[in-house]
Amino acid sequence: MGVTGVGGIFFRADDPDALRHWYRTHLGVGGEGYMPWEQVAGPTMFLPFAANTDMWPREKPWMLNFRVDDLDALLATLRAADIAIERDPTWDTPETGSFARIHDPEGNPIELWQPPAE
Fold this sequence. Notes:
There is one protein chain. This protein is an alpha+beta fold. It is built from two helices and three strands. A three-stranded mixed beta sheet has the order 1-3-2, with no helix packed on it. The chain starts with 15 loop residues before the first helix and ends with a strand.
């Protein structure tokens, strides 16, 4: 008995409808209205960071991390939509996979993660 997975991620937004639309359009996250997002099972990290981490802006208390299956293809789609992308080759390792960071229209940090090939 215990927790079996993440049941939801809830956060405040200045324009919830517009932000839901942005996530659905650009990342495929979320259903229409309040319908659940059906996802493929896989690893999920639950990891508090130190209060002084420089992984994301200090004024934002959290960062979303989404597992993706083709990071390069997703980044090409995001670039075509004029979404700024941050990459750093030191983030990527054969053991952990590949990473990129973006921000949603309200400035919330999002990390995109392609796990290493099995």
